[in-house]
Amino acid sequence: MKIDIQAGSLSLSEDERDSVKQRVLMRLARFQDSIHSLNIYFKDINGPKGGIDKECTLTLKVNNLEEVVISSKAESLINAVDRSTERAKSLLARRLKKSQRQKKVNSKLDMQEIDEDE
Fold it and tell me: Is the dihedral of CA 18, 67, 55, 83 positive or negative?
């Protein structure tokens, strides 16, 4: 899985970038084979005013599925990352399960068509 981090107007040290990558990889590990690439974009909404103003947007390109975009806001970048990855994990689980069910249905339909042709 290719991971790209864009800090926007924020400055992130290499240690912070590595920490973010590790947190995301740990939470999305079970989907590692399904995720082609992941873009993480950070934004400081209010600038120096403070408050719940750190935004983390995850854009995931998933094999055989539409692109997934999740955005979360929090007081800290780490909390925003955690919220976004938890939401992404839930969404990916639902979408992949739905995709697998659809494949089974399509496979059964294909088998029925073969039986009817014979």
Answer: negative
Structural domain count, the chain: 1
Which residues constitute the domain of residue 14?
2-117
- Please state the pTM of the whole predicted model: 0.78
Residues 40-53, mean pLDDT to the nearest whole number: 80
- Edge-to-edge strand order for the sheet containing 35-44? 2-6, 35-44, 54-62, 68-74
Q: What is the DSSP string of 48-86?
A: GG-SS-EEEEEEEEETTS--EEEEEEESSHHHHHHHHHH
CATH number at 48 reads 3.30.160.100
